[in-house]
Automatic annotation (TrEMBL):
Identification of the protein by name: Trigger factor
Domain of life: Bacteria
Source lineage: Bacteria, Pseudomonadati, Pseudomonadota, Alphaproteobacteria, Rhodobacterales
Compartment(s) of residence: Cytoplasm
Keywords of the record: Cell cycle, Cell division, Chaperone, Cytoplasm, Isomerase, Rotamase
Role: Involved in protein export. Acts as a chaperone by maintaining the newly synthesized protein in an open conformation. Functions as a peptidyl-prolyl cis-trans isomerase.
Catalytic activity, reaction form: [protein]-peptidylproline (omega=180) = [protein]-peptidylproline (omega=0)
Pfam families attached to this UniProt entry: FKBP_C (PF00254), Trigger_C (PF05698), Trigger_N (PF05697)
Gene source species: Parasedimentitalea maritima
UniProt record similarity statement: Belongs to the FKBP-type PPIase family. Tig subfamily.
Signal peptide bounds: none
EC assignment: 5.2.1.8
Top class in the EC scheme: isomerase
Domain remark in the UniProt entry: Consists of 3 domains; the N-terminus binds the ribosome, the middle domain has PPIase activity, while the C-terminus has intrinsic chaperone activity on its own.
Length: 443
């Protein structure tokens, strides 16, 4: 076998591989000898079929296998000897299309090699960690919001009309074309006006009614309504308002605390404080992560494989197009062209992706089975009742596994950078942290 370099420009590589006919023939014979003891053929005992007959019967198929294995072996040996890592799957094509048995096989292989990543002194990276303490006012505000979710309703004075946010207790009977339908009736039903728990247009028509009053509520079922017999149909609900109740916030006391799993009010405040500070810490980490990526991006410079940048730019353009056109859920749309802005962003992402991969490899960062399981289960919760099917789908799909593994790996590498970088804490207000987070979203 001969391997001759034909291209070496930047990260682009090209090689001509020639596999001698004798080498292929020897490999075919080797496969036949290996298989001969198990082959049965009419007129011959098992394992006694003549080699010439075996070659006539199976030689053509085995020649194809021999070609593939030999070329794969040549490629693997080349990458092992050269140290090159292809950015994407190498392009391999046979050049002597008029090949016939007895001829040498000529193959061209081309690819873009991943670049050498320069060393980065992570101890030279200076970062600022924004720290926000959960103040008493923040805890009180969160506690009030919590009490609001636990609100009750108390009867309004007689003759007072229902307002948005009130609870009305109603009897109702729905009809389409003057015929009652299944699921369209209820008695003593507590409905919070403005909760949007009924079909659009229903609740608004009950605002202003008093206890004891009746009204025909006219609505149209949405065209995408779950029950096909009702979808898009006009309906009339005969409603009787039996009670009108105003919302009453729950009292801030130990009883409320127990509803949320705390021993007393002080314990609930402590839980809220911990939750708030965990939220602040998460937001602070996002800000510091962006600062870390900006710092790393400014520290390194190396050639990038054009194919990777082009693929990433295309993916960015595709994603942004779908965000601007959410009504298009499939891929049946015009070709999406990439812009200079897409390419600029792709260049940064590819450069940082390669750098983080290199840092993670050198630091022996690994994603554990437990971390992957946790990530899969987190995704599976988005499919209630189908968690097991989703879990099994992920286990069989290597690409999906990589999509879940990549962000975990990246975060672990970022944590590694945090450990080595010079980090200075700065206590700021909640508003200042919020502004920093909003600045990230605007970029």
């Amino acid at each position: 076998m001969q391997v001759t370099e034909t291209l070496n420009e930047g990260l682009k590589r090209g090689y001509a591989i020639t596999v001698a006919a004798a080498e292929l023939d020897a490999k075919v014979n080797e496969k036949l000898v290996e298989a001969q003891p198990e082959i049965e053929m009419k007129g011959f005992r098992k394992g006694k079929v003549p080699m010439a007959l075996l070659k006539k019967q199976y030689g053509e198929r085995l020649m194809g296998e021999a070609m593939q294995e030999t070329i794969d072996g040549a490629m693997n040996k080349h990458f092992e000897d050269s140290g090159d890592r292809p950015a994407m799957q190498p392009d391999v094509k046979m050049t002597n299309e008029d090949w016939k048995p007895g001829d040498d096989v000529s193959v061209d292989m081309s690819y873009e090699a991943l670049p050498e990543i320069p060393e980065v002194d992570l101890k030279s990276v200076s970062l600022e960690k924004l720290v926000v303490k959960a103040g008493e006012a923040d805890v009180d505000e969160a506690l009030a919001n919590l009490a609001e979710t636990a609100q009750d309703f108390a009867a309004r004075d007689e003759g007072v009309a229902a307002e948005d946010g009130d609870q009305v207790v109603i009897d109702f009977l729905g009809k389409v074309d003057d015929v009652a339908f299944d699921g369209g009736a209820g008695e003593d039903y507590p409905l919070v006006l403005g909760s949007n728990s009924f079909i659009p247009g229903f609740e608004e028509q009950l605002v202003g009614l008093k206890a004891g009053e009746e009204k025909d509520v006219k609505v149209t079922f949405p065209t995408e309504y779950g029950a096909e017999n009702l979808a898009g149909k006009d309906a009339v609900f005969a409603c009787t308002v039996k009670e009108v109740k105003a919302p009453v916030a729950a009292e801030l006391n130990d009883e409320l605390a127990k509803k949320f799993g705390a021993e007393d009010l002080d314990g609930l405040k402590g839980q809220i404080s911990e939750r708030l500070e965990a939220e602040y810490a998460g937001a602070s980490r996002a800000v510091m992560k962006r600062a870390t990526l900006d710092a790393l991006d400014g520290l390194v410079s190396f050639d990038l494989p054009p194919s990777l940048v082009e693929a990433e730019a295309g993916q960015i353009a595709h994603q942004l197009w779908h965000e601007d056109n959410p009504e298009v859920t499939g891929h049946d749309h015009p070709e999406i062209e990439t812009t200079e802005e897409h390419t600029t962003l792709a260049t940064r992402r590819v450069r940082l992706g390669l750098l983080l991969a290199e840092l993670g490899q050198k630091a022996e960062v690994e994603v554990t089975d437990a971390e992957m399981t946790q990530a899969i289960m987190g995704q599976a919760r988005q499919y209630p009742g189908q968690e097991r099917e989703f879990f099994e789908f992920i286990q069989k799909n290597a690409q999906m596994q990589q999509q879940l593994r990549a962000p975990i790996f990246e975060d672990k590498v970022i944590d590694y950078v945090f450990e080595l970088a010079e980090v200075a804490e700065k206590e700021v207000s909640k508003d200042d942290l919020q502004k920093a987070v909003e600045a990230l979203e605007e970029e």
